[in-house]
Amino acid sequence: MIEHKKLLQSISYWLSYQEKIGRSFMITEASLRYPVADYLSSTALPLDAIKLEYPHPYLQQRRIDLVTLRPVDKGHTITAAMEFKVVKDTTKSTAEKKRIFNDLVRLHVLAQAALALPYFVVAGKFDQFIYNFRSTLKTNKLGGYHRLPDPSGFFTEWFSFSPRGTRTFAVGTQNDAVYRPIYDAFWQDYRERDIPAHLPGEISTECIAISPLSRDFPLPYVGGIWKIN
Asked: Taking phi first (over 0 means left), then psi (-120 to 50 degrees means alpha), and beta for anything else, what does residue 22 get?
């Protein structure tokens, strides 16, 4: 059984350690698989049940960052699926917003098929997480605030930043000029080859773990885990 708070702590500690020993260059989305796989193996999950870059069972030529499997009959079934994201300055760009939305849809497809528990895992430096994801502000400088800014901006449409907080956002009927082009971009990219050939009506997310955030004693790296429905 995954204890999501412990998983998130493992990610934060691993990222902080890599920076401390001068390996910041290793901190990428792909590198998050290492602390996640290490944590999962500590839960008595066999190593051969943890797979990286696993083919999506419903979307052709798409892969999931990490899955866990259990044997059934003559094959395996996915029990949990994770997509990873490291927050950077570019996270606020339109291209990255599209990539995050694509991750959410891929996970949503699994949830609707009742095939797996799908999780979106986000981590990054404290400043980056606060100002480029939790609150998409124009400044990234902590010194200008006596307290942390409240969650605000683009990503609060998709994610709550409170423990057990939820968001349900319309996709098919969304007409907002900011979000509609991002949703349509997914349609253009996927509809030629993949199933389903339509966008979901809505997607729900639940914040199941979030790092403690302190203006006075910030952790070097923080993050959050959201369950996708």
From this structure: left
Per-residue pLDDT tens for 159-191? 999 999 999 999 989 999 999 999 988 877 776
Q: Which amino acid is at 44?
A: A
Three-state DSSP state, 17: helix
Distance CA 108, CA 128 (A): 26
User: Could you give the dihedral angle defined by the CA atoms of residues 37, 29, 222 and 161, in that order, rounded to the nearest 10 degrees?
Assistant: -100
Q: Give the pLDDT confidence of 193-215 residue by residue, as tens digits.
A: 555 556 789 999 999 999 998 87
For residue 223, the one-letter residue type is: G
Whole-structure pTM value: 0.91
As a whole number of angstroms, the distance between CA 10 and CA 36 comes to 7
Reading the block at residue 190, the tokens are: 């996927």
